[in-house]
């Protein structure tokens, strides 16, 4: 559920905990501000307009980064359908496929009603999740019924294969579908708690199934995620599994891309009235396009920085939402969330760092995240002063 959690496994379970509490907090904030148009409006009802403006800017930045991640996953999935090792060749087809998907998703999200776009994203996410679940079940069944099963050794660390990259990016894209869509469509949040809870449970079940499939097929190495389930499936079932997973990744990445573009359309349409929303939308799409090219061509280590920045920006948004919820004086629930959730956020940050056994690779994305957060806070405060002045 997070870009940096390895795609699935324990990272997704941590994400499910976070998303569940965020939904709970948003429902409570909706009761406080029933006419709020965005998550920023809900936050502003307790923390003030400056905090609300800051959340809106952080959301827009995170959605843009996640849109780029989804488009990148789509391009790699399409390329993987007919190239054995797309990461081992130097081609511009990868970014071109991603840019094409980004453009189409932006047009669809802008032109179609929000409910139609959300419905398309939900169907694509459901198809992809179901396919991934069946791939993991097939691997598990093969591993449990064949005691002499032999697979190619899986690396403990080092460069990821194309399958692993697609798995992480595509599942990350799916992980933010729904929760992020709902935070931008927050005028309906009080009525979608049950569907969103169902979505979180489905994502967690798929993640655990993938993780168990890897453990069953390769029991000798302890792993915290299941990103290698698809690589094992190809090893066991050949090209059939490869083509199936290419289709799964296409469905999940397109679903995530549509959800993120819908969020961007919603946010850019609620910013200053004296600015043209279309200009802001095009600006966000251009930034996402630059990130797609940067990640696919490994410019300035964008492929290593953008996923972490996207995840950490969302964690900042969630932290502010939890704090806003804690300001509601209607019971101890808000206070307990204020105590427990910082520990969960910290665990989501420290778990991948501990797995990598080095903090050095995480310093650049951390610096970028802090810079964006400081700028968002400053701009949000300035906009709040301008509005009240």
TrEMBL record:
The chain crosses the membrane at residues 6-27, 60-82, 94-112, 119-140, 160-183, 195-214, 243-267, 279-299, 305-323, 335-356, 362-382. It comes from the Bacteria. The keyword Cell membrane does not apply. Keywords: Membrane, Transmembrane, Transmembrane helix. Coiled coil: none annotated. The keyword Lipid metabolism does not apply. This is Amino acid permease. The lineage of its organism: Bacteria, Bacillati, Actinomycetota, Actinomycetes, Mycobacteriales.
């Amino acid at each position: 559920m997070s870009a940096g959690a390895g795609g699935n496994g324990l990272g997704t379970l941590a994400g499910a905990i976070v998303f569940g509490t965020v939904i709970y907090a948003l429902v409570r904030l909706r009761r406080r501000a029933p006419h709020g148009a965005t998550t920023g409006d809900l936050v502003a009802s307790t923390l003030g307009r400056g905090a609300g403006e800051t959340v809106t800017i952080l959301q827009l930045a995170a959605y843009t980064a996640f849109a780029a991640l989804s488009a990148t996953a789509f391009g790699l999935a399409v390329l993987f359908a007919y190239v054995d090792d797309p990461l081992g060749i130097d081609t511009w087809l990868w970014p071109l496929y991603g840019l094409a998907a980004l453009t189409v998703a932006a047009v669809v999200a802008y032109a179609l009603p929000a409910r139609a776009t959300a419905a398309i994203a939900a169907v694509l996410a459901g198809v992809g999740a179901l396919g991934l679940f069946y791939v993991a079940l097939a691997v598990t069944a093969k591993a449990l019924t064949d005691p002499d099963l032999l697979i190619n050794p899986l690396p403990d660390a080092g460069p990821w294969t194309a399958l692993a990259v697609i798995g992480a990016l595509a599942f990350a894209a799916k992980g933010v579908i729904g929760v992020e869509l709902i935070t931008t469509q927050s005028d309906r949040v009080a009525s979608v708690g049950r569907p969103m809870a169902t979505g979180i449970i489905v994502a967690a079940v798929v993640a655990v199934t993938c993780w168990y499939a890897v453990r069953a097929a390769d029991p000798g190495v302890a792993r915290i995620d299941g990103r290698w389930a698809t690589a094992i499936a190809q090893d066991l079932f050949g090209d059939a599994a490869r083509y199936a997973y290419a289709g799964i990744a296409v469905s999940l990445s397109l679903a995530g891309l549509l959800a993120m573009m819908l969020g961007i359309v919603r946010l850019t349409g609620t910013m200053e009235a004296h600015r043209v929303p279309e200009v802001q939308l095009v600006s966000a799409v251009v930034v996402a396009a630059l990130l797609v090219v940067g990640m696919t061509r490994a410019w300035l280590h964008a492929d290593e920085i953008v996923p972490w920045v996207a995840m950490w920006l969302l964690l900042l948004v969630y932290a502010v939402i939890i704090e806003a919820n804690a300001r509601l004086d209607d019971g101890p629930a808000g206070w307990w969330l204020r105590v427990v959730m910082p520990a969960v956020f910290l665990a989501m940050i420290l778990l991948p760092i501990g797995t990598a056994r080095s903090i050095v690779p995480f310093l650049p994305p951390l610096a970028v995240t802090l810079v964006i957060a400081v700028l968002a806070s400053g701009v949000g405060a300035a906009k709040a002063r301008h509005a009240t002045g």
